[in-house]
Structure formats: structure tokens, C-alpha cells
Amino acid sequence: MLRHLTIRDFVIVDHLELDFGAGFGALTGETGAGKSILLDALGLALGGKAESGVIRTGSARAEIVAEFDVPADGPLRNWLVEQALGGEDEVILLRRVLESSGRSKAWLNGTPVVLSQLRMAGDLLADIHGQHAHHALLRGDAQLALLDAHGGLQCLAREVFERYRDWSALRRARALAEEDASSSARERELLGWQVGELSDLAFDLDDWRALNQEQARLAHAASLIEGGTEVVEGLADGEYAVVPQLDRLLGRVAEMASHDRQLADVQELLGSASIQLDEAVHAMRRYRDRLDLDPERLGEIDQRIQAITGMARKYRVAPEDLPDVLTESVSRLERLTRQSDPAALARDEALAREAFMQPAVALSEARRKVAAELSSAVTEAMQSLAMSGACFEIALKPVEEGAASGLEAVEFLVTANASQPLRSMSKVASGGELSRIGLAIQVITSRSVATPTLIFDEVDVGIGGRVAEIVGRLLRQLGVDRQVLCVTHLPQVAAQADWQWTISKETREGETLSRVRLLDASGRIEEIARMLGGVNITDTTRRHAAEMLSLES
Q1: Reduced to 3 states, what is the DSSP secondary structure of residue 485?
Q2: What is the β-pairing status of strands 61-69 and 91-99?
């Protein structure tokens, strides 16, 4: 759960250090005081999208740091280990910095991460329901995503999507082959000719390198023989050869050293030089004698090199890349050959459809069960939300031939009166009803979410009185097993909370800033009384507030 939140220079917040408790916590305060700003900052720490203008005026950057407990086991710890981000720790630190230049940086447990990694960790830590979340439930894609998430069907839905994608690709391939049969035949003929000439060339990279080395040697054989002879003559066979002169000088030094041992080192050095020169002479003679002038072999090599370089120029690649051209041509030819066979294409398409239908049917069966359970639970919740006799149903409408989302489309149906037929929620629900239905759906589906922290940002808009009290009880029940944070303007909801903060605005040195206080028992009475009575708070209002808190304590 969320333990600590640090916010610096964010909108009208200069510096806040907030410690969070377990259970259900309410965030209250006057309109515009910055209640939702706190949740916006937390959303950025969880990987949310940063918008311009959130950096406090006059500041170079905004910084948000969130500290969460890490569950003893589960997907978050496993993910941290996989990403090498400290899965052994008991806490996880998320840090986000927004700069005035527009750049954004993120860290996770002190390690720089990309935003997608921060968002992935955030999805496993907290689930945020915005105040307009119920409007998203009017879209079919959002309804389908909620149904799959509630039933834990995302992996199966992803498999269906991938299988449908494969099937669609084969259908398109068959259609294209049928539409362009003549051009496909011409391309196959061209590719067949290319594969043939490249295969006949029998290019081998090691042979190519050896050919170039041999060609260089044969092409310079005459000059190499001439040079070898010149070196041998200069060292040993010529009139002024080095070796005989060195031997004569070595003898003279040896004679001198017999009279003066100080010349022993000189004698030794000249002796070593003589030995090395003898070895050099023998090596050069062996090299010169092995050299062979072979014009015929040189011509063969030149012809082979010309054939290879000519082929490389033809395909506009380096000679070393010719094997890749052959591999690509063979692959393309095989693919076109398969596509030119209607029977083979039909078989592949049928197999792909079968591979799609198997998980799609399983997904449909699972969706029917989840839809029935969720429909019943939401209908029951609606009765307690001042919608007696109302009914909610999730309809699964078959999609002919299927789609990437499966074999059906989802539509949320509702009726406010049992005597009236079910109709699309987008057409029959009023604003207040939509808020209540959306809240019921969000609360119920949140029970199945694995994230340890649930956040509701003014989802109780449009309700009041007895219904607001029931909403508060629902959130309190969720707080038994989860950490629940709720921004609310309703005293009936706030009174149900285990703990409460109040957010207010104050002016410091001419600047308007947010201030957050954790309320004690007397502070909660004053805040609930303010929410009940407005500007003028009377003793009667305070007694009413105390009574609300006492009943819910």
C-alpha cells in the first residue's frame, strides 16, 4: 500500500510530505483547494502522462516521490526481479521529475527507468478511478476491457487477438494472391531465375577471401621473385654481400677480444647478428624458390573474381552480401509458390481460423459466466443506491466471423424500472443515474483487482443523502482488505472513513499554496460540520457531525 508521498513545486504545492495509513482514507476540503492535485501528482509518480503547466510558477522543475509497500509475493515482486530493480526490498520507491523544458525523468528504487516501466509498476500498485470514469463506461471497448479485467481474462483475450491477427494475415494473403495471380507468376519466374544464377555461382565467403589473397600473390609473383633475389644477393651472394663482410669483421673482433676481454660483449652481439642474418638468408631463399609464375592459374582466379564482382554489381550489394540475397530470394520464392497454390492457401487459412476459434470459444464461455455474475452484482448494488427496481445486464452480441476482440461485442444494458425493457446504458441513464451505476460497477470490479491501493477521485458526484451514506459504506467495506483513498465533497462519505485529511489554501508571501492536515477527532467534527453547514457552522451542525462520526466509529 501507499506509505509516503513527497510533492515539490507541483501546481500550487510548494513542498508536502504525506504519510498514509491503512483502511479507508478521505481527502476533503473546499473547491479549488487542491484535493485532486494530490491524486494528479500521485498519478504522475505511477507513470501517468505529464501535461504542460503543472510545474509551480517560478520553479525549474516539479518532483514527486511515492513509497509503497511491496507485497510478500505476487506479480509486482516477480516483475521487479525480472527487471533487476530490487525485488528483495520491502518497499518500492517511484520518483518522477518534470522539467520546465518539457523533459520528464523517472527512477524506480533509485535506478533510471523509461516511463513504460514506471507505468507497469504503477499498474501493479494502484488503481485510480477518476471522477469521469463512468462516462468511459459508455464506450464498447471500455465495457469489454472492464469485463475481461474483472474476470481475469486478459491473457486469453490477448491470445485471441494474436490468433485473429494471424488468421487475418492469411486471409489477406489469399485475397491478394487471387487478385494478382498474373503478376505473382511473373515475380516467381524472375525469382526462380535469380535463385538459379546465384546458386550456380556457388559463392563461399571463405573461398572469396582465399581467392583475393592468392590473386594478390600471383599478380605480384614476378616482382616478389625479383625482390627475393635482390635480398639474397645483398645479404649473401653479391660482391658486397653483408654476411661475408660481417663474418670477416667478426673474426677480427674475436682476434682482438683474445687480447682484451672488454670486447667480449661486442663479439657476442656480432655473433648473434651473424646467426640471425644466416637464418634470414635461408628463409628468403626458401620463399623465393617456392614462388611460381603461373599465368594460367592467375587467369582462372581473375575470371572467378570478375564473375563474383559482376554479380554483386548486378544486385547492388557487396560480394560478401550475396549469400543474404540468395537466402532472401529463396524465402520469397517459397512464399510466393505457396501463395500460388489455392489449395495450400485454403488449408493454411482454415488451420489459422481453427487456431483462432479454439481460444475464442473458450473466451466467450468465460465471458458469459463473468457477465452473468457481474450483472447480478451490479443490479443488487443499484437497489441500495436509490434505484429500486432497476436492472443491469451485460449483453454479449455475436460478431459474424469474429473479430480481434473475440466472437462477441459487449453492451451494458440498464432499465430504471422493472416494467421497462433493457436498453443501452448510454441512451437511458440520466447523469445522476449514470454516476450511481458507474460507481456501483467501479466498486464491485475493484474487489477483484489485485492492486493493494484503490483511489477514487470524486466518483460520488451527482449523489447525496442516503445514497451517499451507502456509497461511504461500500468504500469502507473495501477498506477492510485494501487501502482506499477517496477525494469527496460529501460528508456522508467522509464520515465513513477510517482517517481523514483536509486540504486548504493559504497565502504565504503573496503566493497561494495548498496545505494538508491530518485531522484528529475534533478536527474531523469541524470538517464534517463545514461540509454539512457551509459558511456558518452552528453548534447544531457540530452535534450532527459528531453524531455522524459516532455512528460510524
Answers
A1: strand
A2: antiparallel
